[in-house]
Write the structure tokens for this entry.
Amino acid sequence: MRKFSSSNLIFLLIIGLGVTYYLYLKGYIFSDFQNLDPKSAYSLIEKEKDNVFILDVRTPQEYKEGHIPDSTLIPLDSLPNQIDKIPRDKKVIVYCRSGMRSASASRLLSSLGYDVYNIAGGIKSWRDEGLPVER
């Protein structure tokens, strides 16, 4: 029977920490917000149109290339200074290109008491599902 060497254990620990960190960044663990697949997000937007604020945290250039209809652009780096533009009495649906920046924004907003939903996979997944995008 083969024994684990200390270098094998260290390697497994590093891999485990890397996976945990990735899941944290994506908002799948240790988060106070809900990740939604694009179709579920679209359904929520359609069902509660007047009770939803759609937040795009990408750059202005990315936004011009196509965005979810009725979304508001507040780039992630300016979000802390523009929190007052986000209504507290609505559900906030956040997205970016692939889901990393929006997970960071969602974590910040949920820590401030907002009811937050992150679109998993970002606008890339939204487009892959054939959901509406406007320029």
User: Anything to note?
Assistant: The chain has one domain: 31-128. The mean pLDDT is 93.
